[in-house]
Amino acid sequence: MANVLVIRLSAFGDVAMLVPPLYSVAKAYPNDTFYVLTNKNFVLLFDLGLSNIHPIGVDLADYKGIKGLFRLGNFLRKYDIDKVADVHDVLRSKFLRTYFAFLGKKTVHIDKGRKEKRAVISHKVPLQPLKHTIDRYKNVFEAMGYVAEMSFSHYFSNVSGEIALPENIFLDESKKNIGIAPFAKHKAKMYPLEKMEQVINNLCTRSDIVIYLFGSQNEAEILERWQTKYDNVVCIAGKLNLAQELFLMSQLRVMLSMDSANMHLASLVGVPVVSIWGATHPYLGFYGFRQSIDDAVQIDLDCRPCSVFGNKPCRRGDYACLNYIDSDIVIQQLQKHLD
Q: Could you list the pLDDT tens digit for every one of the 339 residues in the chain?
């Protein structure tokens, strides 16, 4: 019986990808306890119906600097940690695993394949699929002795209890419900909004479709405008908690998203995701869990991919990887899941 500290503090999508392998390992080793150190906003992801998974949600603003990390390490000691699985491998997680190593605890950390990914985006090697992040997480657990088949299938197959939507968010199960999450953290990962509006304009002409617009409260203004402008469009930005968003996603016929957290959330609830890719590429290991590569909408350019995370400006200046994707191509891919 061991207590294992699993560290993945951010980002949202990367934390979501931890759910399938962690669930599978925890289910296979019920006598060991897995404490997941993550952002306090992501804790619900690990409410998986297993008594040996315990998320520890923190606000990193409370643990700034070396002194703050020492305080966090001291706080974590109360969980009697025996092993540390660092599946983040950033400065904070390196500090914490070193802290526990000095206490004589076994530590294992992820190999992110940084060198391989740099070689791909610098075009020094041919583009080919690299190891998926979920497999890299599995490798960490395996190095600690936790070998398990992937038993995770669907978030709500493990979660008990009903989840109610707010009264002003109506779900018509007789319709073909579509989710659209048009935003991404970086410009190089986001389909131009005018093109996305063309997609919505086309889809909303069908009376058998309802479109739900996903986004944060900060993005709600544009989504609310689309809701007002088009029929059969519902903006849910800032109106649902994470459990409600996951439930609504689970009722969708298909989700349209960028290379973003919403792709990974929809994947956790078993919904097909049509994803649009710009500067990044599915082959770099961040594709949605069990998603079909056929649903990745992208174009071939000599300069793609130019970034692992999409956080760099376009070297060409025209963001051709996104601007050259015609809205009709996106619509056609969505329609494969509607007809």
A: 999 999 999 999 999 999 999 999 999 999 999 999 999 999 999 999 999 999 999 999 999 999 999 999 999 999 999 999 999 999 999 999 999 999 999 999 999 999 999 999 999 999 999 999 999 999 999 999 999 999 999 999 877 777 999 999 999 999 999 999 999 999 999 999 999 999 999 999 999 999 999 999 999 999 999 999 999 999 999 999 999 999 999 999 999 999 999 999 999 999 999 999 999 999 999 999 999 999 999 999 999 999 999 999 999 999 999 999 999 999 999 999 998
What end-to-end distance do the CA atoms of the chain give, in Å?
51
The predicted model scores a pTM of 0.97
Contacts 24+ apart (CB under 8 A), 155-161: 155/19, 155/48, 155/246, 155/250, 155/268, 155/269, 155/270, 156/246, 156/247, 156/250, 156/269, 158/23, 158/48, 158/49, 158/50, 159/47, 159/48, 159/49, 160/49
The per-residue DSSP string of 268-309 comes to: HTT--EEEE-SSS-GGGTTPPTT--GGGEE----TT----SS
CATH 3.40.50.2000 intervals, the chain: 3-147, 176-335
CATH dotted code for 176-335? 3.40.50.2000
CA distance 300 to 278: 10
* CATH architecture, domain defined by 3-147: 3-Layer(aba) Sandwich (3.40)
C-alpha radius of gyration, the chain, whole number: 21
Measure the CA–CA gap between 148 and 296, rounded to whole angstroms: 29
Beta carbons within 8 Å of 300's beta carbon, 6+ residues apart:
none
